């Protein structure tokens, strides 16, 4: 009996070591995923439910973060009619903090469609709602249907009402740059195209804004989501407009 217990103790010790190594490997390879799972492990403190910031913020900085988050939630909820997702938000006001949680040069990023990270350059309602739009859209998609990246990104620009890439909502046509050809479909294609041409966001937003205008806006988008969840293919529903 003693030898059996000893054997099991060794097995459990080996399994624990393997698990620890796996967790450490994930933390090293994907610090943003690890930080989203355990914000406190990366020096972030909970400002309010689901919102984590670096410690030591002044009262004005805390007020700024709270205001940005309220505005971002409102943009998403106003566009969709409600907000069904509740991503955890990891917000850094210093580059050191953002680098520590795995951030790079981007202003913000959605992590696994469950969390949002904001850099010091992304603590504003436009960037926050853009990333939250990605989470909201994928939260509503219950099927395995895949959206082309240009639609996902273009929609996020529309939801966030980003004036860098869209004309005012009052304009007859919100397009600032009309796409002349196919837009990036995969994430890899998107990253390559957007890194070479910042206008890729404007082109995608143009395509999405025109589709929304011709398909009833929010009602058209919600119908698209329902049809995708029912098994229809994106390309059979959405036809690019020029």
C-alpha geometry: globular
Task: Enumerate the strands of the largest sheet in spatial order, edge to edge or round the barrel.
Answer: 1-2-3-5-4
- Give the mean pLDDT: 87
Helix percentage range: 40-55%
* N-end to C-end Cα span: 77 Å
The secondary-structure class comes to alpha/beta
What fraction of the residues are assigned to beta strands by DSSP?
5-15%
| Number of extended strands | 5
- Number of discrete helical segments: 10
Computed CA radius of gyration, to the nearest angstrom: 21 Å
How does the major sheet shape up?
5 strands, mixed
Parts with pLDDT < 50 across at least 5 consecutive residues: 11-29
Secondary-structure element sequence? HHEEHEHEEHHHHHH
What order do the helices and strands come in, and which of them pair?
Layout: H1 2-29, H2 31-37, E1 44-48, E2 51-54, H3 59-80, E3 88-91, H4 95-100, E4 108-111, E5 115-118, H5 125-140, H6 149-160, H7 187-196, H8 199-214, H9 218-229, H10 234-237
Parallel strand pairs: 2-3, 3-5
Antiparallel strand pairs: 1-2, 4-5
Helix pairs in contact: 1-2, 3-5, 5-6, 6-8
Account of the 3D structure:
The chain is α/β, with parallel strands linked by helices and 242 residues long. The protein contains ten helices and five strands. The longest helix has 28 residues, at 2-29. The N and C termini lie far apart (77 Å). Mean pLDDT is 87; it is low at 11-29.
Would you summarize the structure shown here?
This protein has 242 residues and is of the alpha/beta class.
Summarize this structure as a short list of keywords or feature phrases.
alpha/beta; 10 helices; single chain; 5-stranded mixed β-sheet; 242 residues
């Amino acid at each position: 009996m003693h030898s059996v217990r000893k054997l099991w103790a060794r097995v459990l010790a080996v399994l624990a070591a393997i698990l620890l190594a796996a967790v450490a490997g994930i933390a090293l390879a994907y610090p943003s995923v690890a930080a989203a799972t355990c914000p406190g492990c990366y020096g972030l403190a909970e400002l309010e439910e689901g919102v984590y910031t670096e410690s030591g913020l002044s009262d004005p900085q805390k007020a700024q973060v709270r205001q940005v988050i309220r505005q971002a939630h409102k943009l998403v909820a106003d566009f969709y009619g409600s907000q069904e997702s509740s991503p955890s938000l990891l917000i850094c006001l210093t580059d050191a903090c953002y680098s520590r949680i795995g951030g790079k040069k981007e202003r913000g990023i959605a992590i696994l469609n469950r969390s949002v990270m904001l850099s010091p350059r992304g603590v504003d309602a436009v960037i926050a709602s853009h990333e939250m739009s990605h989470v909201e859209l994928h939260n509503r998609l219950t099927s395995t249907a895949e959206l082309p990246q240009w639609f996902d990104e273009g929609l996020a620009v529309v939801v966030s009402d980003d004036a860098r890439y869209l004309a005012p909502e009052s304009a007859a046509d919100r397009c600032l740059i009309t796409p002349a050809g196919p837009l990036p479909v995969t994430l890899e294609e998107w990253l390559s195209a957007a890194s070479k041409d910042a206008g890729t966001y404007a082109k995608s937003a143009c395509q999405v804004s025109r589709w929304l205008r011709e398909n009833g806006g929010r009602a058209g988008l919600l119908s698209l989501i329902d049809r995708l969840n029912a098994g229809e293919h994106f390309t059979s529903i959405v036809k690019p407009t020029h």
